[in-house]
Amino acid sequence: MIYGIGTDICDVRRIRASVERHGERFAQRILAPGELATWHARKARWPERGLRYLATRFSAKEAFSKAIGLGMVMPMTWRACEVVKRESGQPAIVLHGALKDWFEARGLRCHISVTDESDYAASFCVVEKD
Ligand SMILES: CC(C)(COP(=O)(O)OP(=O)(O)OC[C@H]1O[C@@H](n2cnc3c(N)ncnc32)[C@H](O)[C@@H]1OP(=O)(O)O)[C@@H](O)C(=O)NCCC(=O)NCCS
Q1: How far is the CA of 69 from the centre of ligand 1 (A)?
Q2: Which class in CATH covers the domain with range 2-129?
Q3: Where are the beta strands (DSSP E) in the chain?
Q4: Whether the Cβ atoms of residue 60 and residue 123 lie closer than 8 Å to each other
Q5: What is the CA radius of gyration of the chain?
Q6: What does the domain layout of the chain look like in residue ranges?
Q7: Using one digit for the tens of pLDDT, what is the confidence trace for 16-36?
Q8: Which of 10, 64, 65, 102, when mutated, tests ligand 1's pocket best, judged by the most ligand atoms within 8 Å of its CB?
């Protein structure tokens, strides 16, 4: 059965402003270690793609936080919720630490979809309970 759904829209211009203001610290606060490596690689090749990557991760994590009904409240933290890519290109959520324990204790499963276009990134998340 469906446990929760979550959606989020993120203005890429706001992400750009945060990166300009706080530099690397902003990305470090939002991204898990694996995501941080992708951000560095994308940003080095094409800065705009780096920002889009950061914006889609930001929106996916917010959508997930809503789907589990917590918002950005412990054990939900930005870095404990990692967005990975399957071989097919489909994104998936991988959890870490206390958030992983919290999620698994409830028998939850997650589906995430992300998109971006010009100035916006958006995500939709469905969480199921077995
Ligand atoms: C959920 C959250 C991450 C979204 O923040 P945001 O990016 O500023 O705002 P968005 O426009 O993306 O989303 C806001 C909507 O999220 C929804 N939302 C808020 N808390 C939620 C929760 N715990 N679970 C699911 N959805 C939630 C609400 O519908 C809200 O819209 P509304 O205020 O018009 O009802 C953030 O509100 C949060 O962390 N909330 C929990 C902590 C909190 O609210 N603390 C204060 C308690 S008084």
Answers
A1: 9
A2: alpha beta
A3: 2-11, 81-85, 91-95, 108-117, 120-129
A4: yes
A5: 14
A6: 2-129
A7: 999 999 999 999 999 999 999
A8: 65
